[in-house]
Protein: Fe-S oxidoreductase
Amino acid sequence: MTLQLVLGLVAVVVSVVAWGVFVAGVWKMIKIIRLGQPDGTRTGPFWPRLKTLVVEFVAHTRMAKFRSVAPWHWMVMWGFLIGSAVLFEAYGEVFDPRFHWPVIGTWSLWLLLVELLGLGTVVGGVALAVIRQRNHPRRADRVSRFAGSSFRSAYFVEAVVIIEGLGILLVKAFKQSSGLESAPLWTSFVTQPLASLLPAAPIWVSVMALVKLLSGMIWLVVVGRNLTMGIAWHRFSAFFNIYFKREDDGGVALGALKPMMSGGKVLDLEEADPDKDVFGVGKVEDFSWKGWLDFSTCTECGRCQSQCPAWNTGKPLSPKMVITQLRDHAFAKAPYLLAGGSRDMAGDEVGLTEDKYEDYKKRLESIDVLAMAESERPLVGGPDELGVIDPEVLWSCTTCGACVEQCPVDIEHVDHIVDMRRYQVLIESNFPTELGGMFKNLENKGNPWGQNAKDRLAWTEGLDFEVPVFEGELGDAEYLFWVGCAGAFEDRAKKTTRAVAELLHTAGVKYTVLGPEETCTGDPARRAGNEFLFQMLAQQNVEVLNAVFEDRPAGQRKIVVTCAHCFNTLANEYPQVGGTYEVVHHTQLLNKLVRERRLVPVAPVTEDVTYHDPCYLGRHNKVYEAPRELIGASGAKLREMPRHEERSMCCGAGGARMWMEERIGKRINLDRVDEALGTAPSKIATGCPFCRVMLTDGVTARQSDGQAGAHVEVVDVAQMLLESVRRGTEKADTPTDEVPTGTPLPDEDKSKV
Structure:
């Protein structure tokens, strides 16, 4: 009795301290997260967000993207959630071995649930530790998704999980061996055989209950004192991060970029005040509170890293480490910010000044010297500047969205990266030199190649039918055919444009093109961070498009596009600037026409074809089936690459990388072409002109070094369908390094595409 009293008192004293430390940590974390900018778009509607939360954590829909991990994590998660009830039961068991929850404590179903929780927690914890060991960074460079993650934190959490599970099982087993609990075998299939090996000693029930409690209390203390231990804190913050995700319908933060915001409102660039408004993110406190919640929730699982094309080709960018570096910086700087500290764009102190606070000296003395030093670091800067995020990291991103697609806790990496780019471009004017020429061409000529608008119809030359051009009225045209800059000026993309036009003509689809009235949608400008230029181009296009569709009701404002980037921008981002249209990709429309028998393939393309999913068609907009069905309709045999559909590897052109040099590591397009060539295809098909350029150059490079046959070519899906519909052939693509396209850029602005 005395021993049990001592055990109980130890449990109570330790628990009071542990819970105090943990609650203090929770309160501190809440105060720190609230340092971020306001964002009122995250709070509703309530029921759709709650549904998303319940579905994601109960069914583990995000976690299940890695099927080898999902079941084990699912066991551990439920062991933590429901097992908390078993943990609190231990407070009674340390005083009285006979204690159990009133009413439910003797139910057979409850006893079975406890058995499953204990067993599942142990098995799940061990499995997760084994998975971490099997993917340890000791393996070949950049293979491990855990490279850069904290292994000490991970093993600590997994050890606590396993000890908790063992505690649950041993408490139950000792109750049975001591005759304190009687249950049928089906409710105790592990603990009953174990009990037969244990002594009849009720005191061991209290001892094991204390072990179970102490492991949990140690966990609370460690977590409460280490706010940057994301692998532990995600047990709490993940629920909030999922609920407050950008898309209230449950979608991931892909497609449209988050608008540039200031003070919790969408920033109107025409009325913005540079002295008051935030242009992108120049300091960590410029991120919204949801950004700070993202940083705090990262579990360091490395799924984003494992899918990142930049990381996998030797670039310094790891989406995981971007988030963890921002987290570490934010929490290190937090004491300075909480004390009222703030710096202007020049880096001068404007928050903690003697004339602003009566308790100025007291506030200053409360700031740790490390927090003050952290406040002086630039958010983006090279090693010499002690920057948090290196510029090479920031500009390596292709905005492909693989990181966002894979993140099990809905972190919005791309939005954060683009927000930092926005500040660098709009305020610092600090961006890769190659982008200068692209920006200038977009501003002056309305396309990134710097071509003249009058040449936008050059692709129609040689067609044996007339392409209708908009001349004030749509007439009976069902679709506006948005050709895009690449489709109008880039020689390889022109073949796609001509093929689509011919197929639409063959199917009897009424359409029209804008010709010289069309200009760039602004996608490369926006992904590069030049929000001002994007807004200018978008508003210009919306004005034209709204005039074109002036007499058409909302459901009949139809646009068909061949470029995945134009497709995404017109469909998802133009509504932000007043342009709402029904936008379809050419593969979707052509597939519909084939299904309706308005296009009938008559000459099967009896070749082996692999298909490359464009990021902005597939991952960003979930268009996977239409192009594949068209490949099947053309008669070709589809050979899937290992990375396809939602896990497709980027070609390297997105995020304005099309116009930037790739100086570090292996070229992304070569990595993707090597994967494509591994399927032994005669054709590599795609549905985006930028992908086609990158893949063609990659194939040409491999052909020149003898790693690809001369017969391999890159084509658009529309070309394959056209070849099948009419017994024609298309000339293979010619690399741009042999035949230049468009107006050459100055030497300093050239990029290898």
In short: The longest strand covers residues 479-482. Confidence is low (pLDDT under 50) at residues 728-732, 736-753.
